[in-house]
């Protein structure tokens, strides 16, 4: 029951749903790209990423000083319908204004 509540509370936030949406779309992103896409400071983004990672939604891969996040495939298989709905969300202005921001900053 506690794991279920952790999962539900992790996605009970618009910013975290947007993070999942972008990671489903781009597969894997570094923190700097997520910052630009979401127009969010690093400390706030890190807090959201930790909540999603602790709930089992994300994995983190480190390359030197860079951290890349992606969707945990095991959880993706368990909750495929939920992830499909998140991926296909029409998030109107929240996404459209940042749609073309991905840069080549990260190696």
UniProtKB/TrEMBL annotation:
The lineage of its organism: Bacteria, Pseudomonadati, Campylobacterota, Epsilonproteobacteria, Campylobacterales. This is ArsR family transcriptional regulator. The gene is arsR. Pfam families: HTH_5 (PF01022). Residues 1-90 form the HTH arsR-type domain. One of its GO terms (molecular function) is DNA binding. The keyword Transcription applies. Keywords: DNA-binding, Transcription, Transcription regulation.
């Amino acid at each position: 029951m506690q794991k279920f509540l952790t999962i539900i509370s992790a996605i009970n936030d618009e910013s975290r749903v947007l993070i999942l949406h972008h990671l489903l779309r781009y597969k894997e992103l570094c923190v700097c790209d997520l910052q630009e896409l979401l127009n969010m400071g690093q400390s706030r983004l890190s807090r959201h990423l930790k909540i999603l990672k602790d709930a089992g939604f994300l994995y983190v891969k480190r390359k030197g000083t860079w951290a890349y996040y992606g969707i945990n495939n095991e959880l993706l298989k368990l909750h495929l319908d939920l992830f499909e709905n998140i991926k296909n969300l029409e998030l109107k202005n929240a996404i459209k204004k940042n749609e073309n921001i991905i840069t080549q900053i990260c190696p």
